[in-house]
Backbone:
């Protein structure tokens, strides 16, 4: 008897046994449709067996084999199995994460077979590579045809993209495919256009969650059968199938958006390295501010280091960075005198300014001066944020919203005033101070309409805007040649965060946003408003000294025993009833200590957001000296937790958590 083992996207840790379909072959790796309970599901054949523990009378047969999709190769199935084991999630869920939504549907229209391209995969060259770029490219190419991880550490504007494109061209010339990963395509529409224009004769498909379903499914199939030569995608692209992948590039490898925060909590950067290792191909991790994990891998010689220490374009220098002491120059409505004057100066010179508002901890909250009441969400331990334009208070965690009250709900006083400077507030302040200036605000609210961000960026390039006010959306890879001033508001909160990665993130963000200034011929200037002008982190940003920052931060991590000097996992729990998450985690901690006393188990603590959407949330951190210790422990721990059968508490494991 031949039995097929099939992975299905259900929250169970097993594969399911089925009989082969009548009169058809269903080889390993094929997509199939199977009856499941009262419904049907799409699954993938992951194995075969001569026997089963399912009683024969209950054994069902595969209904049909999905004909328009090729089989997953052994390499791809191995990658899925690795992710399933490493991130402690069911295999069926991992495979579902690889499949675009349309291909998970039981009945759908067939995907038309992709037309193979009449290939001319040549790179349209613009300018000659600089010496540093040529050396970096050579360092990457030295590892053709084997696993070869390279950290491309290049300052902002050093021309990393040019190196990526040449490395990709080399892979295409060998008849192989290339995967280029970026943090968020939606934020960098120019980048996608640029890549396409540089490979005019080549099929480039993009892969991200904002694509229309049909386009995404077609791109996936084109990558699988090899018709697409370049895939440009966000984190989900790392799980896509390729016919013959020759290189993987991870741009902005430090970016937190490579980590998925629900379900399969994978790090696409880490999976990319694992995949390259398995395939025996080069993987390039590029950044101006590499993650400390990657930095340490390069320093210890596990990764090859290639550096681009200067800006590529002729005449473009790094901006001058300084701090504005907000204890002396008190900000009025968020802006110091020094920053306002600097902006005025730019306007008279016909140059542009960017005011960067660190959204976290910087949203306006409604506050009563008479009784100290402030607007909090009834369902979360978070403040409601004032959205003036809609006259609403909104919770940024659960989405609850209400009209702005006319008077204080607690004491009845009529004077409610906003505290904290959201982007809207800063925009208003600037408009009052600079009535002649053309000011535009860029944040999630103002760019929710499709194409809105691109319109603004086009206006900036056309010099129809004097001042941009915005959040981290503006920090990413856009190129504004006439922008010569960047002002940074309220960066300080991250200096004293409970999260051990907060400083690393702040440093990366400041370097990133500073990198927007002075990309053209005119010199750039960056002003950071702070209560702590002497802080070493700001000093490192001012000196453009990543290595000094990294050395100090790594030493702190080593002393505290945090990654990359240890490996972490976080058990999160939430429940409606107070106390239940804590009880659950205390029991889990006890179980953990029994499984392996060598694993360090911390005490349960409240989550950074202690209540969310009416749930109480808590978490428990565990730490191991090595992955080899952590992995078997996590498997045993999870089995014990599943066996515990807890139902009132929702829990999940996060391996290599990014936010603790
Ligand atoms: P990064 O990604 O490292 O921040 P980019 O790839 O965006 O930098 O390049 C910054 C600017 O330098 C771009 O405008 C690009 O066209 C230009 N550039 C890149 N390489 C060269 C080169 N070899 N010669 C001249 N200009 C270059
Ligand atoms: Zn009051
Ligand atoms: Zn809420």
Residues:
């Amino acid at each position: 008897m031949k039995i097929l083992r099939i992975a299905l996207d259900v929250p169970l840790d097993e594969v399911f046994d089925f009989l082969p379909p009548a009169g058809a072959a269903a080889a390993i790796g094929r997509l199939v449709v199977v009856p499941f309970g009262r419904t049907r599901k799409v699954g993938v054949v992951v194995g075969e067996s001569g026997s089963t523990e399912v009683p024969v009378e209950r054994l069902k047969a595969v209904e049909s084999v999905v004909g328009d999709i090729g089989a997953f190769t052994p390499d791809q199935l191995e990658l899925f199995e690795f992710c399933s084991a490493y991130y402690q999630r069911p295999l069926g869920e991992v495979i579902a994460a690889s499949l675009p939504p349309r291909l998970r549907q039981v009945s759908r229209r067939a995907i038309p077979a992709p037309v193979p391209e009449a290939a001319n995969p040549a790179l349209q060259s613009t300018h000659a590579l600089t010496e540093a770029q040529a050396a970096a490219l050579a360092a990457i190419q030295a590892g053709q045809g084997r696993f070869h991880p390279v950290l491309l550490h290049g300052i902002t504007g050093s021309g990393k993209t040019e190196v990526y494109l040449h490395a990709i061209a080399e892979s295409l010339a060998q008849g192989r495919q290339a995967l280029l990963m970026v943090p968020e395509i939606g934020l960098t529409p120019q980048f996608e256009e640029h890549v396409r224009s540089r490979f005019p004769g080549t099929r480039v498909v993009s892969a991200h969650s904002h694509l229309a379903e049909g386009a995404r499914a077609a791109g996936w199939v084109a990558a699988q059968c090899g018709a697409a030569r370049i895939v440009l995608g966000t984190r989900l692209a790392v799980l896509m199938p390729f016919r013959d992948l020759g290189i993987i590039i991870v741009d902005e490898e430090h970016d937190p958006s490579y980590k998925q925060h629900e379900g399969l909590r994978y790090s696409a950067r880490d999976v990319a390295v694992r995949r390259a290792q398995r395939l025996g191909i080069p993987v390039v991790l590029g950044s101006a501010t590499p993650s400390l994990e990657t930095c340490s891998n390069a320093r210890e010689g596990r990764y090859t280091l290639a550096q681009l220490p200067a800006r590529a374009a002729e005449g473009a220098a790094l901006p001058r960075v300084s701090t504005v002491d907000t204890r002396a120059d008190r900000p009025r409505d968020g802006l110091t005198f020094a920053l306002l004057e600097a902006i005025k100066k730019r306007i008279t010179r016909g140059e542009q300014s960017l005011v960067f508002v660190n959204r976290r901890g910087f949203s306006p909250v409604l506050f009563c001066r008479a009784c100290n009441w402030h607007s909090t969400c009834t369902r979360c331990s978070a403040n409601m944020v004032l959205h003036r334009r809609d006259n609403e208070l909104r919770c940024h965690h659960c989405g609850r919203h209400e009209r702005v009250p006319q008077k204080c709900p607690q004491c009845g006083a009529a004077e409610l005033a906003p505290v904290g400077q959201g982007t809207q507030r800063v925009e208003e302040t600037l408009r009052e101070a600079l009535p002649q200036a053309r000011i535009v605000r860029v944040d999630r609210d103002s760019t929710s309409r499709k194409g809105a961000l691109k319109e603004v960026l086009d206006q900036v390039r056309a010099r129809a805007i004097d001042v941009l006010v915005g959040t981290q959306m503006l920090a990413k890879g856009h190129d504004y040649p006439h922008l010569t001033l960047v002002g940074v508001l309220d960066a300080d909160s991250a200096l004293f965060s409970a999260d051990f990665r907060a400083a690393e993130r702040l440093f990366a963000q400041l370097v990133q946003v500073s990198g927007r200034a002075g990309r053209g011929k005119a010199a750039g200037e960056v002003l950071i408003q702070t209560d702590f002008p002497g802080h070493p982190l700001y000093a490192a940003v001012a000196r453009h000294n990543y290595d000094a920052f990294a050395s100090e931060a790594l030493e702190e991590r080593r002393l505290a025993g945090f990654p990359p000097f240890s490996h972490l996992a976080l058990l999160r729990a939430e429940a409606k009833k107070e106390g239940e998450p804590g009880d659950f985690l205390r029991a889990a901690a006890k179980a953990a200590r029994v499984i392996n006393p060598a694993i360090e188990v911390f005490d349960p603590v409240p989550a950074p957001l202690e209540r969310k959407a009416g749930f109480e949330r808590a978490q428990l951190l565990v730490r191991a000296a090595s992955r080899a210790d952590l992995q078997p422990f996590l498997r045993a721990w999870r089995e014990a937790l599943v066996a515990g059968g807890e139902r009132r508490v929702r829990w999940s494991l996060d391996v290599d958590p990014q936010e603790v």
About this structure: The mean pLDDT is 91. The longest helix spans residues 627-644. The CA atoms of residues 385 and 622 lie 34 Å apart. Residues 368, 370-371, 373, 408, 410-411, 413 surround zinc ion (ligand 2) (CB under 6 Å).
